[in-house]
Fold:
Amino acid sequence: MSILSAGKGDSRYAIHITNKEISKTTLNNFLSKENKVLIITDNGVPKKYLKNLKKNINVKNLHSLTLNKGEKSKSFKSYQNIINKLTELKFDRSDCLIALGGGVVGDITGFAASTYLRGISYIQIPTTLLSQVDSSVGGKTAINLSQGKNLLGAFYNPKLVLISTLFLKTLSEVEYKSGLGEVLKYSLIGNKKLKRMIEDSSQKIIKRDGAILKIIIEESIKTKSKIVTKDEKEAGIRAILNFGHTFGHAIEAYNNYKKITHGAAITLGMVIASKVSFYEGHLKDYQLDNIINMIDSLGLNTDHSKYNYSKLKKYMASDKKVKDGKLNLVLIDKKFNAFKTSKYDIKNVIKSLD
Ligand SMILES: NC(=O)c1ccc[n+]([C@@H]2O[C@H](COP(=O)([O-])OP(=O)(O)OC[C@H]3O[C@@H](n4cnc5c(N)ncnc54)[C@H](O)[C@@H]3O)[C@@H](O)[C@H]2O)c1
Ligand SMILES: [Zn+2]
Structure:
């Protein structure tokens, strides 16, 4: 088992990563027998995980709430259901929520924890690759409003994150690949060890080999936690985590957030951003080829020909990253380090897309 950490001062938290069962002792050491615990999960998470978790927690007052699977559950209505349950059960500040599921469950549980009684503790047990390498670390919590995604939220760190690669055995291919998109991102924005591992062990990664998964999750989190700990409220360097996301979000919006997963969309976004980096003179041609080959070797799609500039333009213009009419882009340089720029040449953006 490996232990990493993220966050500063009082809001620092440990992240345990294992390719075995999550540690009962770690979990129970954190909880007190007198505490009430509410586990939030969704009905797409295999039932045995909830059953197992319940069996392993030693508290007198243990409850669970199962949401419907899918982004629709990151809603005001589900949030209200959680809050109703907490008031009904008379949870107080010493009690605790546990998120058992993907990013949807993690985001809404974190948001409920951040607001109920002005903040109670929560533990993240992420069960998708995307939530293990991304959403469970960094303290961003949110629900969606009819006006847009993630519009209501808070920065609120969990007290503990428990990750086991065993959960990934039951994950669908599409969701697994979505998570791989974010893993790939960390390898292109500065994590050289991770980049080498993907280049050397793509077959093992595709086969979900537990030992390799543990390392790639660890490396992904090291990169994310280093960045989010430096910049908790997204004032500066945290922006490089958006590599591929300006185009990726446009692709997701163009598809109405259906038909394409977040990871698949940002993977195409990273191909496009790498091409812009090349046209801007920051990457050599063989380095661009290297990136495309890496993505191919993981079985992810690199063909973005469906999305030309005229299709994506309107969605890019409404992206959060536009300031004073200029599109902020994260590009990468010859050393595979990411940097933020607003001095892009629009012609090169168009060239990269068409
Ligand atoms: N807070 C952040 O920093 C952050 C970062 C990235 C994404 N997000 C959010 O995360 C959400 C996406 O998360 P996601 O990709 O994990 O999607 P998700 O939570 O919808 O999970 C995908 C599907 O997999 C199922 N599932 C979960 N674990 C499983 C398992 N072990 N085996 C089989 N099926 C399983 C779920 O029931 C669901 O149907 C979005 O709402 C996004 O906004 C948040
Ligand atoms: Zn992302």
User: Anything to note?
Assistant: The CA atoms of residues 321 and 328 lie 5 Å apart.
